[in-house]
């Protein structure tokens, strides 16, 4: 059985917010400054700083001051178990539900062919 | 860098949320009325077409679903080397086309699964929830989702091709 470290709890709390999940997804593609993140998610610098701080405490994000800009990167925590855990679970359901889409489309098509209206 | 965003196209995204220590919720929208989506969950010949997408590579040996309150279900998978694995339990709520709930009795600390189908503007907003008796049970069961790590290795290989 896989053992989960206790910091998983803070990670899950950090990831319970849609904006913070969006930040992680964005950082997965590329590093970004807090200003860029604030603009992308249409919120104030202060608001974004708070989100980043929660992610930082959970080990999901690290920040580094480069000149006058604070750059955010994925932290170790986002690259290993807990992120993998949620991603893996989501992937399984994505695959399942994409398959379910096809089954449902087929049911719709049959209904149309049978000439029955909903 | 690996592309992490949703595949392009008309597919709706699937979201996963750990709602509490004991509960995980998956959400998805389908472009169909609830009665059709519900049908795909409750008719064995339809359910088996999507629950384990072919590409996962696991073979469903048998599927029995007696979808009524108190009715049982049982899925048996082939794990290779003549090993099999069974998942079973019973339906505790069956409310067509809006709600379905069942127990998972293959382990002592299995979840209660609840699926809701909410129809809005000819779309179905589906939620799939697994509520475990304890936090530890969730960590143990979801962490190794259905105890089939190889399934995910295959899934991981598959996902880039889905887009």
Topology:
The complex is a heterodimer of chains A (118) and B (163).
Chain A: H1 8-14, H2 18-29, E1 32-33, H3 34-40, H4 45-57, E2 61-66, E3 69-74, H5 76-79, H6 81-113
Antiparallel strand pairs in A: 1-3, 2-3
Chain B: E1 15-20, E2 23-30, H1 34-42, H2 44-50, E3 59-65, E4 72-80, E5 83-95, E6 99-103, E7 112-120, E8 123-131, H3 135-143, H4 149-162
Antiparallel strand pairs in B: 1-2, 2-8, 3-4, 4-5, 5-6, 6-7, 7-8
Helix pairs in contact in B: 1-2
Give a concise summary.
The complex is a heterodimer of chains A (118) and B (163). Chain A is mainly alpha-helical.
Mean pLDDT of chain A: 82
**Overall tally of structural domains of chain B:** 1
Strand order of the largest sheet of chain B: 1-2-8-7-6-5-4-3
> Given the structure, what is the number of helices of chain B?
4
Biggest interface between protein chains, with counts per chain?
A: A-B, 37 and 50 residues
Spatial separation of the terminal alpha carbons of chain A = 48 Å
CATH level 3 topology of the largest domain in chain A = Arc Repressor Mutant, subunit A
What is the CATH architecture term of the largest domain in chain A? Orthogonal Bundle
Structural class of chain B, by secondary structure, is alpha+beta
CATH superfamily annotation of the largest domain in chain A: Winged helix-like DNA-binding domain superfamily/Winged helix DNA-binding domain
Low-confidence stretches of chain B: 1-9, 144-163
Distance between the termini of chain B: 16 Å
Uncertain runs of chain A with pLDDT below 50, 5 residues or more? 1-6
Order of helices and strands of chain B: EEHHEEEEEEHH
How many domains comprise the coordinates of chain A? 2
Overall, the morphology of chain B is globular
Annotated CATH homologous superfamily of chain B: START domain
| Secondary-structure arrangement, i.e. CATH architecture of chain B | 2-Layer Sandwich
The string of secondary-structure elements of chain A, in order, is HHEHHEEHH
Tell me the fraction of residues in β-strands of chain B, as a range: 35-45%
Query: What is the β-strand count of chain B?
Result: 8
